[in-house]
Amino acid sequence: xxxxxxxxxxxxxxxxxxxxxxxxxxxxxxxxxxxxxxxxxxxxxxxxxxxxxxxxxxxxxxxxxxxxxxxxxxxxxxxxxxxxxxxxxxxxxxxxxxxxxxxxxxxxxxxxxxxxxxxxxxxxxxxxxxxxxxxxxxxxxxxxxxxxxxxxxxxxxxxxxxxxxxxxxxxxxxxxxxxxxxxxxxxxxxxxxxxxxxxxxxxxxxxxxxxxxxxxxxxxxxxxx
Length: 225
What we know:
The radius of gyration is 17 Å and the shape is globular. Helix 1 (15-26) packs across helix 5 (193-203) and helix 2 (87-107) packs parallel to helix 3. It has six helices and nine strands, in the order βαβββαβαββαβαβα. The two termini are 20 Å apart. The protein has helices at 15-26, 87-107, 128-143, 165-173, 193-203, 216-221; strands at residues 7-10, 33-37, 50-54, 72-75, 112-116, 147-151, 156-157, 191-192, 210-214. By secondary structure, the protein is an alpha/beta fold. The strands form two sheets. It has a seven-stranded parallel beta sheet, sandwiched between helices. The mean pLDDT is 91. Helix 3 links the parallel strand 5 and strand 6 (147-151).
């Protein structure tokens, strides 16, 4: 990795993305950070190393020229509550827009790509959410980045309830399941959103190449300050 590698980031306005971005900006070995999105991240004061561009996530031509000289790409783009939109719109955001971004990154010489995915992602799943995630993961593998890191969290635990009663129950119950989620089931443990963001950011500094899928224990191992 070059000294002070630059980062291009899409999805930084989301819950995980916000924490990952804050952590990336705090890392001394990271150079400039460019965010691309439908709105800017509200940071006051904004670090000098941060540049933000408003783009159309569905139109690669709206951002292709901004990707220039970055070595690392981070993508945490995704629909927070898929049940609230159509399957077509979900696929458009969680798969097509992400793959378009990745293809531009590859063409522009980005070496490592970090993607927030989901535990259970499988292109053969009967669940359209997990099937879409799995199809995306496989498509990214075909792009042959020097390094591809795909993060597979189970339940992402946020400090506040963002989506109503169902999430409220989940946030209350899921952490109590750790006592039974042992052995191979540990990958289903919930992960706090700030810890997941920190793991993604910290992992950009780990020297490695090739493909890796990261799960709960990997996230916990990346909590070093």
